[in-house]
Amino acid sequence: QVQLVESGGGLVQPGGSLRLSCAASGSIFRIYDMGWYRQAPGKERELVATLTRGGTTSYADSVKGRFTISRDDSKRSVYLETNSLKPEDTAVYYCNAVVTAWNRQQDNYWGQGTQVTVSS
Predict the structure, then answer these.
(1) How far apart are CA 25 and CA 78, in angstroms?
(2) CA spacing 20 to 30 A to 90: which of 76, 113, 119, 120?
């Protein structure tokens, strides 16, 4: 089994910053794409940012220029640096990873989510 555990969420004032972290553990042979998604109350889950194993990034238009995704494969981790936060960034943020396990089965995994609240 593979587990993803997020951390770093919290309450921040508009204009503030947070650094979200996600660490993968378990029977991991290789991690491919990693990313962050978010879900606000009453809305569908949406993509925030993704990062391929080769280093290609993709961002939602709403976060371009404010958020930065990065990864450290030696730590099996992905990060999301969030800056200039706005109230509309308030959501539960989920880590996602495409992982091949040691049994060579590839699956899409999700973390449990971390709450980000932007409010004065």
Answers:
(1) 12
(2) 76
Tell me: pLDDT of 1 over 90.
Answer: no
Average pLDDT estimate for 63-85: 97
**What is the C-alpha to C-alpha distance for residues 28 and 24, in angstroms, rounded to an integer?**
8
In the DSSP assignment, the letter for residue 28 is E
Backbone angles phi, psi at 14, to 5 degrees: -55, 135
Average pLDDT value for residue range 1-29:
96
Nearest to 83 by CA among 36, 22, 16, 11: 16
**Cβ proximity of 49 and 80 under 8 Å:** yes
Distance CA 19, CA 68 (A): 9
- How long is the chain? 120
**Contact indicator for 90, 118 with CB cutoff of 8 Å:** yes
Cα torsion 6, 109, 101, 53: sign: negative
